[in-house]
Design brief:
This protein has two domains: 2-182, Chloramphenicol Acetyltransferase; 206-454, Chloramphenicol Acetyltransferase (2-Layer Sandwich). It contains 13 helices and 16 strands. The chain is α+β, with helices and mostly antiparallel strands. β6, α3 (101-113) and β7 (125-132) form a beta-alpha-beta unit.
Amino acid sequence: MRMEFRFEGERSGTAPLAWGQRSIWLAICRTMPSDHYFNFGRIIAISPRSPRDVLDALAKLVARHESLRTRLRDVDGDVHQDVARSGVLEAEVVECPAPDLKRAAEDLRDRLAGPTFDYRAEWPLRIGLVTCEGDVRSVVLVFCHLAADGHGADVAVRDLRLLLRRGAVSGPPPRQPLDLAREQLSPAGSRVSSSALAFWDREYRRIPPSMFGTPAGPPLAPRFWRAAMTSRAVDTAVQVISGRHRVSGTTALLAGAAAMVGQVTGHGTCAMLPVVNNRFHVRDRDVVTPLAQDGLFVLGLGEETFEGLLRSAWASSLRAYKHTRFDPLELRRVVESASGDRGTTIHPYCCFNDQRFAEQPRIVPVEHDEATTRALLDETTVTWPVKLDQLNCRFCLHVTDEPGGLGISLTADTAFLPPEAMEGYLRGLELLLVEAACREVRLTELPALIGKASA
């Protein structure tokens, strides 16, 4: 069954894409026709409410956040964001008995996330309601990535909860993508972009042309596979390393991931593209739009110990985060210039995305029993949930919070990393981090650790 509701916002308008929107649009175009890869969903369990109450709250949510009523429009040979002031959205309603609520919500989320969005004709939000005896018990939201990044989706979920509980969200609406685009087109925005691009230009003239430049063999069909590891051992190890060395868990994971890439590829420098949420200013924390852009994380791998590498990774990550606000079209010209001067295409093809909620707990020392932490390795699982024909990268590492521990998934081009190498990478990374939580690890030990993990 489907139910419709009408939304009424305060304004409409058309503008060029903001930088974050442009970044994800370029990635979508490079991934077509497998761009459903970028769709993602949220499930919000609620106390029993009537469908009409929930639809009224959703109408207010869409009115508050313009990105949720934005589609693409072709203007003078380019795509622009086109915000509608009003319109009609629909929700798919699934009725089920109480014991099946969780499964029904997950199935509905997966089904709604499956098809590619029609970016010019379809609203960028798909909605599902799971009901039991007529009352809504779960709301399913599936986002087009042009409408939100992970943090923006979490803001939308928070606001929906407030609208259901109180009927309103206190304070004025946050900044909107139309305003961001106009600000970024200003002279001040141009200066921010130019400063970031100067950093990228310098680094692109010294890094390896690609972290994965030599195929290991013929690709499989489908070509791109995902290995998904869930590990309580890594979850514990990252907390221990973070607390002991006073760095974020993301930095610990970046250091470990870079060290392992160096071992797999033989490069003495690792260049990675971490996805950075760009919400460092308080005014941007509640914006529902893809603000995230790539950073350029460059790490020399010549340190003797993992602890030394961790210190270098902390400094390198700060440099990367500082230079993540730029015009993606201008970056493309920078890359073409550097590639032309070096006589080869420059692209790391090596991505890192920590998708955990941005507001991490305060870093504190964590006590652990080494034997118990090592024993957790036996609980680790690796599954193969996704296979794609097309993707715009050769190596994409994602970090998520999972019920059974920390989730680390690797989506890779099987021509460069066949499935056994993908699993070996993940298990080697896990063992490196666990050993680093228990003792000082010398980087000359990595081949032995990888061999042990793959055995």
